[in-house]
Amino acid sequence: MSFDGILPIPTSLRKFRAGERSRTGVPSRYDLQFGVETMNFLSRRACEVLFYILAVVMLAADQLTKAWVRSNLDIEETTQVAGVHMIHYNNTGASGSFFQGYGQWFVPVAVVVLAVVLYSRYRGKLRSVPMEIGTGLFVAGAVGNAIDRLLYGGVTDFIQFREGIVANIADLCLNVGMIVILVAMFFGRKKAGQPAKHFP
């Protein structure tokens, strides 16, 4: 009994069924194509999960560490935790304590950048494991610092580097995420220039 006239069957599945009935018993190119399409679908879903998990985990880590600093350290008070030099600093500028006093301008900028990133993901332009890692980190960093600016008028920085720069987990996510995105874009373009592989 066939339900072909009742339920629409995807073309790839029709080809798969036709190849499955091959008399030779050797998988045809339709069988291989169906398998590739299935793996691509699963890979896209896995990439999406990776993006959301990484963004949520790093955003939570950023907000929890900042809350601990605000609760346990006064402004400009220093301490050391697990070998990390920490100082409670209210940053009214950009990442890394630059452009002090202009923090209010970074909220709309962050919103625009986030909109571009999320739209690019929706259009499928940022769908690879490196891109998901980079965009996940970048989104976590941008949202983390935007929350601080909206709620506290400035970003809570606490990780002190030898050069005198004070940062936080969101700053690290922004910088690392951007580096990963740029590297992924560079190698993605090189790969796109290679000849495509075809099924026999």
From TrEMBL:
Lipid bilayer topology: Multi-pass membrane protein
CC terms in the record's Gene Ontology section: plasma membrane
Keywords for the protein's UniProt record, in alphabetical order: Aspartyl protease, Cell membrane, Hydrolase, Membrane, Protease, Transmembrane, Transmembrane helix
Record has Iron as a keyword: no
Signal peptide range in chain numbering: none
Active site annotation, chain numbering: D157, D171
GO BP term (any one): proteolysis
Similarity-based family: Belongs to the peptidase A8 family.
Chain's role: This protein specifically catalyzes the removal of signal peptides from prolipoproteins.
Protein name: Lipoprotein signal peptidase
Natural source organism: Cohnella fermenti
Organism taxonomic ancestry: Bacteria, Bacillati, Bacillota, Bacilli, Bacillales
Gene that this sequence comes from: lspA
